[in-house]
Amino acid sequence: MQVATINPRCGRRSAFTLIELLVVISIIALLMAILLPSLSQARAHAKGTVCLTNLRSLSHGLTMYSTDNENKLVPGRLPRIDNCNWRALIMGGWKYRPTFLALMGTNVGMDPFVYPQECGDTFDPLGEKGDQQNYSGKVYVCPSVADWTDERNGAYGYNYQFLGNSRLKNPSDLASFKRWPVYITNVRRPSECVAVADSMGTAASFPRNSRREYADDARDPDRLGNEGFNLDPPRIDMGAGEAAGFPSERTAADDRHVGRANVLWVDGHGNSETLRGLGYHVRPDGRIDVDGDNTKWSSNGQNVGWTPAYHD
Fold first, then answer.
1. pLDDT tier, 1 (very low <50, low <70, confident <90, very high otherwise)
2. pTM flag (> 0.85)
3. DSSP secondary structure letters along 98-122
4. What does 236-278 look like in DSSP terms, one character per residue?
């Protein structure tokens, strides 16, 4: 009887050698190095698109506020008189010193706060003080800086100097607004006049590597987002004008979306712009100077800094 023999090669599994494994790992690492930046940039672009959608949604509120208020543009923020004034009725109830965002959102039916507070020295159930509450609606917050929810230290700033500076020149005269009301019909080129844009706050006055991270309720000038709701234009008259942190600090637009800032214009359209395209003069260390170009900010299309003598 013939006995069957087994070829030892038939039962042996083929395997990668160490060199082959190292080659495969190197290829995977190379592919990851190539693809990850692209994926990261794609995510950044997607967040920028959502941010711009937010601004476009709020643009209806800008127009509707003007329509409902005899062509007046929304004020930057109602002035402080005492702990319970100035207040206004917004979506959800009475609110102490609402910002332009809360006023715009009210006109399009979007709640800015879960518990709007009537007085500045009271606290809502979330522990936020009445004069510095956190926005609850996503439309009020840029997804690229999702933790910037503070109404004072917000992600979006308003061109208050030219469109609605409701600070009082004389606290005893409740009609002595510095520049408000401003009528939308007096804006000569509404499609070329900035209304709202991404804001980096007073950190714009500091070198890029000296800016500190955002902190809720903080009031440190070098922190990102500080007083972000007040958006200063590129040119500031340091003699007769003012700025958000005058005379020491200024705010500026924030090119947080892959080197561009999202902008809402007075006519309601939105797009993204570079800081240079908006007229800002950026120093090599990142600080934003005060000698930029206000052509896209002033209501009359001129490159001038705002002063009390300014006219449309």
1. very low
2. yes
3. -BHHHHHHHHTT--S-SS--SSTT-
4. --TTT---TBTTTB---B--TTTS-EEEEETTS-EEEE-HHHH
